[in-house]
Specification:
The protein is mainly alpha-helical. It is built from five helices and two strands, in the order H-E-E-H-H-H-H.
């Protein structure tokens, strides 16, 4: 193998933003943003379950703690705010 074959080619960021990354699944800061978006989506209707499992975050205690805290915070908000946040997700 020569040096050009050893280098990994850029791939697209795992959050779907379209940014090219080398040697990582996400661009800097995009992993946390993507986790936040998935948490909001799970609370709004659960369509993101497959993506969470695909990334292996369903067994991630930090992810599960953030999901729990988001749900608890959402439950404390007035109904109108909860409905608006669900529509935005």
């Amino acid at each position: 193998m020569n040096k050009s074959q050893k280098k990994s080619s850029p791939q697209l960021c795992g959050c779907g933003c379209g940014k090219k990354v080398k040697g990582a699944l996400f661009a800097r800061g995009h992993k946390n943003r993507h986790k936040s978006d998935l948490i909001k989506a799970l609370c709004a209707g659960g369509y993101a379950t497959a993506r969470v499992e695909e990334l292996g975050w369903n067994d991630d205690s930090t992810f599960n703690q953030h999901l729990k805290e988001y749900r608890e915070g959402l439950a404390k908000k007035p109904l109108k705010v909860r409905l608006l946040s669900q529509q935005a997700a």
